[in-house]
Amino acid sequence: ANAATRPDCDVVVVGAGFAGIYALWTARQRGLGVRGFESASDVGGTWYWNAYPGARCDVDSYSYAYFFDNEVVREWSWSDICAQQPEIQNYLRFVAERCGVIGDITFETRVTGAEYLEEAGFWRVRTSGGEEVVCRYLVLAVGALSQPKAPGIEDVDSFAGEAYFTSTWPRDREVDLRGKRVGVIGTGSSGVQAIPEIARVASEVVVFQRTANFVTPTGGGPMDPEKVAGLRRDPQAVRQGMRETYGGTYPPSMGDRRFSDLDEAGRERELWKAWEGDYVQLAFLDAHTPEANEAISAFIRQRMLEQVNDPWTAERLVPWDHPYGGKRPCRSDVYLQTYNQPHVRLVHLPDTPIERIAPEGIVTTEQTFELDVIVYATGFDALSGPVRAMNITGIDGVRMNDVWADGPVNYLGTMVHGFPNLFLPSSAMSPSVLSNMATLAEQQVDFIFDTVAWLEENGRPALHPRAESQDFWADETLRYAKRVPGALTTDSWYNGANVPGKPRRYMVYRGGFKRYNETCYAELENGFPGYELIAPEAA
Ligand code: NA7
C-alpha cells in the first residue's frame, strides 16, 4: 500500500492471548479490517508459553474466562476450579476457532517495531518475517508477564546438563525428569507450582530460594454445578456484575465482619473460617487495613509453619520480611508438604548465595550441588517489559523506551502521550495482574474499540492522552498503592525491583476494577477531556 494515503488494514493486534483474541473478534464485529501477529505457533499467550509441570491458574475458573459470548459460557466446562495450563490453552483455541479469528493471525511472527507516520496518521508495523504492515489503530496485546527476565547468574551457559525456564517450557517434546537430580531456582508462583510436580518424578530436588512467599490453599477441586448453572443462566449479567467488583471476579467469597469490630476470639474464629473456605486474604471486610493485614499475615505464617516437619526448613519457607500481599502471594495445596519428602532439600540463598553455574551444577558459597537438570523459575520483566522489548516510535520520532526510561507512564493504563491510536491492554498502571486478567482483557478491549468507534463517529483520525492526564494517573496509582500494606516497601515485580537496573515504580493500579472501569468510561461519555484529539486536516 501507499503508506501516505491508504493503510493495509484498519487494526493490527499483536499477541493472541486473552486480550488479543478478544481484540481480533471485536475488531471484526465492528466492521474493521484486522490482522493479528503472534510469536508462538498457536494461540494462548501466557497459557501457551508457561507449559511447565503444574502450571495452572490460581484465580477461580468461574471467573477466569470470557463472558462476551453466551454460547461460549454455556458450552465450555472446566474440569477444576483452578484449571491447568493445557486446559486453559485449549479453551483459548476453542474460543478463537469459534470466533473465526484464527485465519486473521500470522503465527510464529514477532512484531519487532512500530513507527507512527505522522503525516498520514498511520502506524507502520515491522515483523520478524520482514513484513511491513500499515494500519490506523495498533493494539499491543502483548501481556504483562511475557518477557522472561534473565536469571542474572554468572556462567549460566556453562551447565553441561539440561536447563529449562518455566516461562518457555518445551512443548514439542516431553521433558523427562524421572530419576534425575533437579535444581530449581526461584520460589514465586511458577516455582511453587512446579516444585511438587518435579518432586513426584525426580530422584533429588534442590530448591534455591532467595525470598520466601506466602502460600495459601488454592480452593481448587471440582466445579460446583449450581454455581456453573448460575453463570450460564445470564452470562451478560455476570459480566456486568464482575465489572462492578474490586477484583473483577464473581462472586468473591469474603468475610462479612470487620476486624476492627471483633475481639481476639472473634478474629481467630473468622480467620479459621476463611482459611478453611480458602479466602483467608479476605477474612474481614476491612482486610486491607494494616492491623487486619498484620493479623492475616501472622495467621498464614503459623499455618505454613505447621505444614513443614523440619523446623529449620519450616522457618525459612515462611515469609517474615514482608506482609501478606506486599508481593504476589502464591497458592498451592501441596507445595509446603513437598519439603517433608526425604529427597527434597531447601537451600536458603541469603545464607549461602549462588556464586555461579558450573558444568556440573550450581555453586553456592557453601558447596557445589551436582545436578542433571536446572529449572529457572526466575520470573519476568513484568508489565512494562514486553512493550519495552519492541522498538516503538511516536510523534516526532520519540522512542517509547526513552519516554519510559524512568518507568512506564500512561493514562488509564492503555495509552501513552505522543503515541496516537496506540493501545496497550494488560499493561502497566491498570488493574492488570491484581485483578482477574480475563475480565480486564474484555473491559480494556471494549474501551479501546468504543474509543475507536467514537473517533470514527466524530470524524477524528486519532487521539492520545494529554501529558497532564499521565501525571494525574501516576499520582492516582501511587495514591492507591500507598494504601496497600507493604506495596511500596517490598521488593517485587509489581514495582520493578526484581529486575536489576529497572526503575522502581509501582506499576499496578490498586483503586479496584469498578473505579477503573468508571474512570475509563467517564472519558468516553465526556468526549475525552483527558486526551488531545488530532484535527481531521492533520491526517
Ligand atoms: P516471580 O514471582 O517473579 O518469581 C521469581 C522467583 O525467582 C523469585 O522467587 C525470585 O526471588 C527468584 N529469582 C529470580 N532471580 C533469581 C536469582 N538470580 N537467584 C535466585 N533467585 C532468583 O515469577 P513467577 O514466574 O514465579 O511468577 C510470575 C507471576 O506469574 C505470578 O506472580 C503470577 O501472577 C503468575 P526474589 O523474590 O526476587 O528474591
From TrEMBL:
Q: Which part of the chain is the FAD/NAD(P)-binding domain?
A: 10-215
Give the domain of life: Bacteria
Cofactor dependence is on:
FAD
Please name the InterPro entries in this protein's record.
FAD-binding_Monooxygenases, FAD/NAD-bd_sf, FAD/NAD-binding_dom
* Keyword vocabulary terms for this entry: FAD, Flavoprotein, Monooxygenase, NADP, Oxidoreductase
Q: What is the name of the protein in this document?
A: Cyclohexanone monooxygenase
Q: Which organism is it from?
A: Minwuia thermotolerans
Q: Which SUPFAM superfamilies match?
A: FAD/NAD(P)-binding domain
The UniProt family comment states: Belongs to the FAD-binding monooxygenase family.
GO molecular function terms noted in the UniProt entry: monooxygenase activity
Presence of the UniProt keyword Disulfide bond in the record: no
